[in-house]
Amino acid sequence: MTLRSRFTLFTVFWLIFILILYNIFVYFFVIRVTTRGELQLLTNKADLIIETLRKQGMRGLEDPKLLSDMYNYNEMLRIVSGDVRVVNKVGTDDELLNIPPQMQVYNLSETRQINGQRVLYLSMPFFDKGHLIGTVEAARRLTVLDSYLQILLGALSVTSIGAIVFAIFGTYWFTSRLTGPIGQMVQTMREIDRSGKLYRVKLNGREESVELQQMVRAFNQMIDRLDRTIEHQKHFVADASHELKTPLTVISSYADMLKRWGRDNVEVRDEAIEAISRETERLQNLIRSMLTLAEAEQDDWLNVSRFEVTTVVRELSEVLGTTFRREIRVHSDSHSVHMKGDKEKIRQLLLILIDNAIKYSKEPIDVRIRNQKNGIKLEVTDYGIGVPESEIPYMFERFYRVDEARHRSTGGSGLGLSIAKKIIDIHEGNVEVYSKTGNGTTISIQLPRKI
What we know:
Elements: H1 3-56, H2 64-68, E1 75-81, E2 86-90, H3 94-97, E3 108-114, E4 117-128, E5 131-141, H4 143-195, H5 210-262, H6 266-296, E6 304-308, H7 309-324, E7 328-332, E8 338-342, H8 343-359, E9 365-371, E10 375-382, H9 404-410, H10 416-426, E11 430-435, E12 441-448
Parallel strand pairs: 7-9
Antiparallel strand pairs: 1-2, 1-5, 3-4, 4-5, 6-8, 9-10, 10-12, 11-12
């Protein structure tokens, strides 16, 4: 069942339920009010009869004019004595006159059914010096009232049916407008599935609700993001293919050279083995970096814990300084700087940045740790060849290289800074690069503390 049909049925059934409750309330409320009004008329007549008897004395019990002056054609009025005998009556309706007389010391009013018609019955006792003399009984047919109730019932039925019909058409029209963008989205998805191309939903200018506009915009934003992701994947696959092709070509060429001349020529064999080993190592580094980027897309890539940043920086700097025989100076404005994050990923981030600084400079390297109010700031500064200002926005793109020759000479995979940027992003940080050709480079990273 479509959303339009469900919404229409729900609205109609809910409206029917409300109308039924409303009609029942109105019907019985009108019955109660009108019946109370009819009863009040009979009560007023009985009170007037009793008051007249008190003024005239008990001798007026059998006076015909006592009741005839108050008689209505659809009523019965009578006086019943203490021995349950009718002493005075007026009326032409035999069914009302045949109602058995009663004698009680309290007022009685009720609605009775006589041959399928409602009759209002009233019995009111009267006393003389504390002694029960008799009762005044009155009965009135509610024929006119019932005919009005039938008209009311018909009017309620007609208006309810009309409201339901208008609700069906109105709800169907409204849901058509409401589900229009949804239908467009479904059609767009089917077209995307059929053609394999990404399409966006266009608003047709109608006054759509804010929620629908937000939904369409969210869908289009998702399509834009998918489009960008697919384009990035295409570029990544193309760049990866190019990067993989180069070492494989070199390995294949030297392997072929080994087959031809390597058995007899020691120099050729040594050169080929060295080149194959070098390109194999480059290939392994490239594949390892690509796998790291693929793992970074998973939700559980981070292993979050609380750790001391200064210790991690000093240990890594000491290891790299000893390994590459370079001076790496660590500066910290606080003895202990703690943060919450993935300790190993932060270490990998610093390894990438310091390794780049070692590759592209010969001077000492400065690593600064700044303890700030809103987080932690890490800065890695080298005093090497620097990066042209126009190239800075592209430094963190995959396989982007500022200088092809320099890149090959250092043996990089072209993915280090991309991995570093991913680590920064997943820690909800940001990075800035300050560099000028010939004057070195400073990479500044702002990370939230999250403690």
